């Protein structure tokens, strides 16, 4: 296959552009979207590339329709993606729940901007973290990835498709206006060197009868996509293993929803991804994700220069959340700092994970600018002095 | 009910393990389902080439009863999902079964845009003038003065004429019948199914339970008599004045044309893109 951008070499591109190219290399053949700052560049790149690689890129009437269209495309057999920002992400919550309930592999990119509401359209924030995890109603689980660099935006887009296909689930790529708009050098591998995952299809007619049954004992049913003669019925109502609506049976509901949650929860080890800097001998830890983690790395170095033994835990996946790992970190340090571009969201999960073993302090910042390393250093030192 | 139940059609196309249906006695949805299956049968379409989609409502439960691929989605959004299905695999034939509230209220925007794009799909619309599933609230189709639980003194809003809306938005084929025009109904569905691009067949369909009861028409026969009173064939309507047509609902074929469908346009678009970029595979 020929690609409409250079492969097997590096290129100097925006985060949004990197996401689009990665999607195509991941095998995405269907994109639906609605324009919104700071995610439009993803759409514009897809619009440019998709017709050339025989994929579809289509502008829908709104974000409700965009996510609906990619779910439909996924059931028709395509790897499918949409991208948006806060206002559109809010509109997607209804059908995000539908994708979870129907176990539809899709990738949704949220290039976070500062909210609430229309907020600061061009400025970055991390205000959608809890919405990404808990925004749709009802008990559920899904996967949320948080890139900090343009290279990570590229790599994690490919990973998002792979995880979506592997676990038959929506995956959110939660990035922000900074990563989306900044330009950095990105290494774009040769397509042959990219490992791609495809959804498990039913091996035979018998397997196809259980589109929602744990027939392989791995909690992930094969997906009988449309047009193959499987005659699959897919509904957002509570359904049994065959997909038949069963809306008042508590046991069937429990079984279904617990399986949907557990297929993520029990595979935490495979899904969760993080990086550690100087944490081994640290007295204080910084837990960070996304763009802020870049300032946090600098802050760790600066703190060490000033005699504070700091370390960093950088989360690349914020859901599922590794509460146990946070507790282990908390056992070894006396304080954990959580710098976030919001008024405290992931902070609450970290605090729960720390389980009282260490003090957990929030370093909040809103208004559109990323924490500077100095700001993190200052906040840590101020607190370290007060004890 | 007006056609003898065809056991052959039933055995061939319905999922036995999903029966009985949720439909109330006297409900028109089952009849329209039967017309649709007959049309498919007469066209000789195979099960693996057809996908049924729907939103939420009594009408939207239909895909669950038929032995085809089916996507029962969220309220109003069937056509947005269908856009993805059709564009990702244009070989699939897509049928949407929709309610009037589903289509014209919460899904109104998806409806007009799917038509504007000329998505290749056949919409079978159950217009029962009400929100059947949720117990008889007024819908955007409820005629002025008719009652629903959310306008207990009679609707004070202007209704939509969904068929006219579809014509104005650019549909390739639009027809409206009552459930009792079964021959015309089946013929229209057949035409609609064979039509490339957007086609709509609307059925005025009795909902004695949620709608009739609140409007002094407790049974299907009473609703039929009312339909006979308020409908006029399109041939006759052509010679009627706007005053005469006030409070009337026109039935018949509204439009039959052949504008290129969305997937056909996209094929051309891909060619254009490749030409413009000097792209050779
Ligand atoms: C977002 C959302 N809002 C409201 C509902 C509740 N609801 C279910 S069906 C329905 C109305 C159905 O009316 P119609 O589309 O005319 O279908 P009918 O039942 O009459 O066939 C409503 C409001 C819902 N399921 N989802
Ligand atoms: S409530 Fe009305 S539309 Fe729904 S099944 Fe009963 S009669 Fe039919
Ligand atoms: Mg209705």
From TrEMBL, chain A:
UniProt KW keywords: Oxidoreductase
UniProt enzyme class: oxidoreductase
Keyword Acetylation tagged: no
Annotated GO biological process: organic acid metabolic process; response to oxidative stress; sulfur compound biosynthetic process
Superkingdom as given in the UniProt entry: Archaea
Keyword Cell membrane appears in the UniProt entry: no
Pfam families registered for this protein in UniProt: PFOR_II (PF17147), POR_N (PF01855)
Pyruvate:ferredoxin oxidoreductase core domain residues: 282-376
Catalyzed chemical reaction(s): 2 oxidized [2Fe-2S]-[ferredoxin] + 2-oxoglutarate + CoA = succinyl-CoA + 2 reduced [2Fe-2S]-[ferredoxin] + CO2 + H(+)
Record EC number: 1.2.7.3
GO molecular function, one term: 2-oxoglutarate synthase activity
CDD domains, per the entry: TPP_PYR_PFOR_IOR-alpha_like (cd07034)
Pyruvate flavodoxin/ferredoxin oxidoreductase pyrimidine binding domain segment(s): 22-258
Complexes and interactors: Heterotetramer of the KorA, KorB, KorC and KorD subunits.
PANTHER family membership: 2-OXOGLUTARATE SYNTHASE SUBUNIT KORA (PTHR32154:SF14), PYRUVATE-FLAVODOXIN OXIDOREDUCTASE-RELATED (PTHR32154)
Protein name: 2-oxoglutarate synthase subunit KorA
Organism: Thermococcus paralvinellae
UniProtKB/TrEMBL annotation, chain B:
Positions of the Thiamine pyrophosphate enzyme TPP-binding domain: 56-203
Keyword Transferase tagged: no
Pfam families: TPP_enzyme_C
GO biological process, one term: organic acid metabolic process
Keywords linked to the UniProt accession: Oxidoreductase
Gene Ontology MF annotations: oxidoreductase activity, acting on the aldehyde or oxo group of donors, iron-sulfur protein as acceptor; thiamine pyrophosphate binding
Domain of life, per lineage: Archaea
PANTHER family per the UniProt record, alphabetical: 2-OXOGLUTARATE OXIDOREDUCTASE SUBUNIT KORB-RELATED, 2-OXOGLUTARATE SYNTHASE SUBUNIT KORB
Record protein name field: 2-oxoacid:ferredoxin oxidoreductase subunit beta
Organism name: Thermococcus paralvinellae
């Amino acid at each position: 296959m020929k690609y409409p951008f250079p492969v097997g070499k590096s290129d100097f591109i925006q985060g949004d552009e990197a996401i689009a190219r990665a999607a195509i290399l991941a095998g995405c053949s269907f994109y639906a979207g609605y324009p919104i700052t700071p995610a439009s560049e993803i759409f514009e790149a897809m619009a440019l590339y998709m017709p050339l690689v025989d994929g579809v890129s289509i502008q829908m009437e709104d974000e409700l329709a965009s996510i609906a269209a990619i779910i439909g495309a996924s059931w028709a057999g395509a790897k499918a993606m949409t991208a948006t920002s806060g206002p559109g992400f809010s509109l997607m919550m209804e059908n995000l729940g539908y994708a979870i309930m129907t176990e539809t592999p899709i990738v949704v990119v949220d290039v976070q901007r500062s909210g609430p509401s229309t907020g600061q359209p061009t400025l970055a924030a991390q205000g959608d973290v809890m919405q990404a995890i808990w925004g749709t109603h009802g008990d559920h689980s899904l996967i949320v990835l948080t890139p900090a660099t343009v290279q990570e935006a590229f790599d994690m887009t490919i990973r998002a498709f792979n995880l979506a296909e592997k676990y038959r689930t929506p995956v959110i790529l939660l990035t922000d206006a900074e990563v989306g708009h900044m330009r950095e050098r990105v290494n774009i591998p040769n397509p042959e060197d990219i490992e791609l995952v495809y959804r498990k299809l039913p091996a035979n007619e018998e397997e196809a009868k259980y589109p929602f049954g744990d027939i392989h004992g791995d909690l992930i049913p094969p997906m009988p996509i449309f047009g193959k003669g499987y005659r699959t019925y897919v509904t957002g109502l509570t359904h049994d293993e065959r997909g038949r609506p069963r809306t008042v049976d508590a046991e069937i509901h429990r079984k279904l929803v617990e399986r949907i949650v557990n297929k993520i929860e029990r595979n935490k080890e495979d899904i969760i991804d993080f990086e550690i800097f100087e944490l081994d001998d640290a007295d204080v830890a910084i837990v960070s994700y996304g763009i802020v983690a870049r300032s946090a790395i600098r802050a760790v170095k600066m703190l060490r220069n000033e005699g504070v033994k700091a370390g960093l835990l950088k989360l690349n996946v914020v859901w599922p959340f590794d509460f146990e790992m946070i507790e282990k970190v908390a056992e070894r340090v006396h304080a954990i700092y959580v710098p976030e571009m919001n008024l405290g969201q992931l902070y609450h999960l970290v605090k729960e994970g720390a389980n009282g073993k260490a003090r957990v302090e929030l370093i909040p910042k809103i208004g559109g600018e990323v924490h500077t390393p100095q700001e993190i250093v200052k906040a840590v030192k101020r607190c370290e002095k007060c004890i | 009910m007006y056609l003898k139940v065809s056991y052959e059609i039933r055995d061939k196309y319905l999922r036995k393990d999903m029966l009985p249906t949720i439909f109330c006695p006297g409900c028109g949805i089952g009849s329209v389902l039967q017309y649709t299956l007959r049309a498919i049968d007469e066209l000789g379409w195979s099960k693996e080439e057809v996908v049924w989609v729907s939103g939420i409502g009594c009408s939207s439960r239909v895909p669950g009863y038929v032995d085809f691929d089916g996507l029962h989605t969220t309220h109003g959004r069937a056509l947005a999902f269908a856009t993805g299905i059709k564009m990702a695999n244009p070989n699939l034939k897509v049928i949407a079964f929709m309610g009037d509230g589903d289509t014209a209220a919460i899904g109104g925007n998806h409806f007009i845009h799917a038509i504007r794009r000329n998505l290749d799909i056949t919409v079978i619309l159950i217009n029962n003038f009400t929100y059947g599933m949720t117990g008889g609230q007024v819908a955007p189709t409820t005629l002025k003065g008719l009652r629903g639980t959310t306008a207990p003194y009679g609707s004070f809003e202007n209704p939509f004429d969904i068929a006219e809306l579809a014509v104005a938005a650019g549909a390739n084929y639009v027809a409206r019948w009552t459930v009792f025009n079964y021959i015309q109904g089946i013929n229209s569905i057949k035409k609609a199914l064979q039509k490339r691009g957007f086609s709509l067949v609307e059925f005025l369909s009795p909902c004695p339970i949620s709608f009739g009861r609140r409007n002094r028409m407790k049974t299907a026969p009473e609703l039929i008599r009312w339909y006979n009173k308020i409908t006029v064939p399109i041939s006759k309507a052509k010679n009627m004045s706007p005053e005469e047509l006030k409070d009337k609902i026109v039935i018949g074929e509204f439009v039959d044309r052949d504008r290129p469908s969305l997937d056909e346009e996209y094929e051309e678009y891909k060619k254009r893109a490749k030409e413009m970029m000097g792209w050779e595979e």
